[in-house]
Task: structure prediction
Amino acid sequence: MRKLFIFFFSAILFSAAATSSAQVDTRWKIHDPNRPVPPIIQPGTFSTQDHPGRPPSDAIELFDGTSLSQWASEDGGPAKWKVAEGYMEVVPHTGAIHTKQAFGDCQLHVEFREPTPPHGESQERGNSGVFLMGLYEVQVLDSYDNKTYADGQASAIYGQYPPQVNASLPPGKWQTYDIIFHGPRFDAAGKVTRPARFTVFHNGVLTQDNVELTGPTAHGVRPPYKPTPEKLPLALQDHGNPVCFRDIWIRELKPGE
Result:
């Protein structure tokens, strides 16, 4: 398990570095003892099916299993989803919820559980979504023994990139997304200078490898980019299915990370 932990997070950090196109800072000599060292943090712990893990010490815990105080409904009022036994559950047709705080470039951890027994088929089975900046969706779906279109499966960048593999667990099991996201950048004229990018691990398996988005995700269309702030709230979708979420935390990434 320790070797798996080291390999998994080394892969995440490598992908994040590749995404940011960081360059060597030549202000410092090689092995310069005066170069500032990274801050010390306490790593988190892995979740089990029975218990959520602990986030890294520098993460912002967006849902601790007890309160939706950091979330709001679409109209800005209190989030209307259910909280019970350490998880939140979509209350169908109450609308999406979003964080009160805005985020941009980040490392995001989300755990979700699909309803059991399963109901419906294709996009009607356990559908939800994780929307970075409220615009760029990593699909949540019960993709275990459930045929649907490729770019709408679990861990798809919806409508743009199918996952490399289907790593879904059966409904009723807790599943994890570990996401590295770099938001778009625009010049003064509104032209895209850096498209949005995703790296996604689904249940510890790489399913999106530093993919570049054509614009916001949407159903049946590919909208173009429009200038936005560098940070916007994170959103979770209400698609009419009682999907559960727990252990949601985020680490904001600084330039070069």
